[in-house]
């Protein structure tokens, strides 16, 4: 029987990231993936700034930036009658892409499809000595007790079954998780909001065939509504044509791709069909994220409409939360009760993001436009103007989502110490930096081109700003409990103003655990509180 500390089931982006994060923390971990890791059909492309911040922490941000859309390819969104037809709306997104940073984050949202992303995560995960990645290995069954989890894994090439014993199992097997089903964990919500077909195409330099400039996302408005879109993948030649509706889904094998491409381009153009895949739009969140020693992460825990691009991004948030908590328990500096907070902190974030994705999906169902919308006539012009205004109003919330990406917070959380300050409004488009406990610790540049975010990831970090009292007692309390802590003094007054208090304690995942202008009367109480929920604290919401 093989032994490991954490068995990760599923080698999609979330499972790979769990292995990567645990490996960096020196945790022994085996990942089993039933397939060989080749991606034949593109899914996620949009990586938000928070995900890029995690990638920066894991040392893969540069590789991701270089692998996806070229830096100078605009993330512009167009609504058109056809590529050579009328422009109805244009949404520019100057804060996306490019090598530059914004005021809010050292990283910008990027577009890097899983075709390129997954191999980058795979290589980085495999570079950790404590990580073993096993492809073509399917987790078939598992049992758990108070001591650990024992799983049977089938090596599909050798046709041999093996038993793996682990302290914990993280289920990253995606939306159809059999592990989740075996645990009897239900998914709450709507299992089928809509039906779709995705067509993977090669069309070199498509933008040279029309007059509206380069764009990453193009939606088509025709007499049937807005049901087709084209997503740029590599900024050169690879595209995904999305088709929404049951009639496409039911006839995915008989699609007239020639006609679809011709209608989209407004004229015949050469293309190569690479693959066709059907998929269903969901609105689902698992009723709980944990059963004993098994944790759900990524699509195994939540499934949403791609409108807004939240699925993989929400999964990366799960990874960063479960990673430090499992490590803390396995390394012995936090009690197992810390693991209770994974569900408490992460499930509400998924509920928020899934709800928003569903609202985006619903608001993008524009209904049937006036037939004249495709006509070169005053009536057509009027229809396009009206629809353009409507589209701009509705789509901003889908495509400008700094609040969703950076503003999620653990509030209330039994391991974040509420300081009684009012919460910052949780909005979709706008992110307002705050060090209120539970929030993402904000970004500010430090000397040498480092961000405050570069301080976080491995240990707790005690940030001391000008005027902070001596912190020996707090440091001693952490040291007595063997909780890793790095105390950092920051003289910069802009950072001090941004962080709002003279002392700010940040967790290994980069969320604020506690803040104050003064030392706490009982430093030990703070050290205990941030690594373990105290029974007196209510976690109901
Ligand atoms: C058309 C489309 C566009 C999307 N665009 C975006 C986007 O722009 N941004 C975004 O954030 N998200 C997007 N998403 C969502 C995103 O693709 C998913 O959220 C993401 O892939 C989930 O990753 P995962 O690792 O949790 O699951 P998956 O990618 O589904 O991986 C699960 C893995 O587990 C393996 N597995 C299953 N069972 C077993 C078993 N028993 N043993 C071993 N291995 C097993 C599977 O083979 C698979 O490789 C999109 C989705 C779709 C359909």
Textual characterization of the structure:
The strands form 4 sheets. Strands 1, 2, 7, 8, 9, 10, 16 and 17 form an 8-stranded mixed β-sheet that branches. Strands 5-4-12-13-14-11-15-18 form an 8-stranded mixed β-sheet. The longest helix has 24 residues, at 340-363. Helix content is 28%, strand content 25%. With 541 residues, it is α/β, with parallel strands linked by helices. β19, α12 and β20 (485-489) form a beta-alpha-beta unit. It is globular and about 75 Å long. Flavin-adenine dinucleotide binds next to α1, β2, β8 and α8.
Attribute tags:
8-stranded mixed β-sheet, 14 helices, 25% strand, binds flavin-adenine dinucleotide, disordered C terminus, alpha/beta, 541 residues, 22 strands
Summarize the structure.
By secondary structure, the protein is of the alpha/beta class.
How many strands in all?
22
Strand content: 25-35%
User: Which structural class is indicated by helix and strand composition?
Assistant: alpha/beta
Spatial extent as radius of gyration: 24 Å
| Mean model confidence by pLDDT | 95
- Termini separation comes to 42 Å
Count of separate DSSP helical elements:
14
Main sheet overview = 8 strands, mixed
**Low confidence ranges:** 536-541
Overall 3D shape = globular
Ligands, ions, cofactors: flavin-adenine dinucleotide
- The quaternary organization reads as single chain
Helix content: 25-40%
């Amino acid at each position: 029987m093989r032994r490991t500390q954490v068995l990760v089931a599923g080698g999609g982006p979330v499972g790979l990231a769990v292995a990567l994060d645990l490996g960096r923390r020196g945790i022994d971990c085996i990942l089993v993936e039933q397939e060989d890791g080749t991606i034949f059909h593109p899914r996620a492309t949009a990586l938000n700034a928070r995900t890029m911040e995690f990638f920066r922490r894991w040392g893969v941000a540069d590789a991701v930036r270089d692998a996806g859309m070229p830096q100078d390819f605009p993330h512009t969104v167009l609504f058109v009658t056809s590529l050579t037809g009328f422009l109805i709306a244009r949404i520019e997104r100057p804060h996306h892409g490019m090598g530059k940073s914004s005021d809010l984050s050292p990283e910008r949202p990027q577009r890097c499809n899983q075709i390129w992303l997954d191999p980058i995560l795979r290589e980085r995960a495999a570079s950790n000595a404590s990580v073993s990645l096993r492809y073509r290995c399917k987790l078939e069954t598992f049992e758990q007790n108070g001591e650990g989890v024992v799983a049977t894994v089938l090596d599909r090439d050798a046709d041999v079954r093996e038993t793996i014993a682990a302290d914990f199992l993280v289920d990253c097997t995606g939306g159809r998780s059999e592990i989740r089903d075996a645990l009897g964990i239900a998914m709450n919500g709507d299992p089928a909001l809509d039906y779709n077909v995705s067509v993977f195409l090669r069309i070199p330099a498509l933008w040279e065939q029309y007059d509206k400039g380069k764009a990453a996302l193009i939606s088509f408005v025709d007499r049937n509504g807005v049901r087709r879109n084209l997503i740029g993948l590599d900024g050169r030649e690879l595209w995904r044509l999305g088709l929404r509706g049951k009639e496409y889904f039911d006839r995915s094998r008989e699609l007239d791709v020639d006609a679809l491409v011709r209608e989209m381009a407004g004229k015949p153009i050469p293309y190569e069909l690479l693959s066709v895949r059907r998929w269903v739009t969901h609105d689902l969140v698992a009723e709980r994220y944990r059963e004993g020693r098994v944790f759900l992460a990524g699509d195994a825990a939540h499934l949403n409409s791609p409108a807004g691009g939240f699925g993989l991004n929400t999964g990366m948030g799960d990874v960063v939360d479960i990673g430090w908590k499992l490590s803390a328990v396995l390394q012995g500096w936090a009690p197992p009760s810390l693991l209770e907070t994974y569900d408490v902190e992460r499930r509400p974030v998924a509920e928020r993001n899934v709800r928003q994705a569903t609202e985006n999906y619903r608001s993008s169902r524009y209904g049937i436009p006036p037939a004249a919308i495709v006509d070169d006539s005053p009536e057509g012009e009027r229809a396009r103007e009206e629809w353009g205004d409507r589209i701009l109003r509705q789509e901003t919330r889908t495509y400008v989502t700094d609040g969703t990406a950076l503003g999620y917070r653990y509030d209330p959380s039994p391991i974040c110490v509420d300081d009684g300050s009012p919460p910052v409004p949780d909005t979709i488009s706008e992110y307002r930096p705050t060090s209120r406990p539970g929030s993402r610790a904000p970004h500010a540049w430090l000397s040498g081109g480092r961000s405050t975010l570069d301080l976080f990831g491995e240990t707790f970090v005690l940030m001391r700003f000008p005027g902070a009292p001596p912190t020996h007692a707090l440091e001693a309390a952490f040291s007595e409990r063997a909780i890793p802590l790095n105390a950092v003094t920051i003289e910069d007054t802009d950072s001090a103003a941004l962080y709002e208090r003279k002392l700010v304690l940040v967790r290994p995942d980069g969320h604020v655990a506690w803040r104050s202008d003064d030392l706490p009367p009982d430093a030990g109480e703070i050290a205990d509180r941030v690594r373990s929920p105290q029974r007196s604290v209510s976690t109901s919401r």
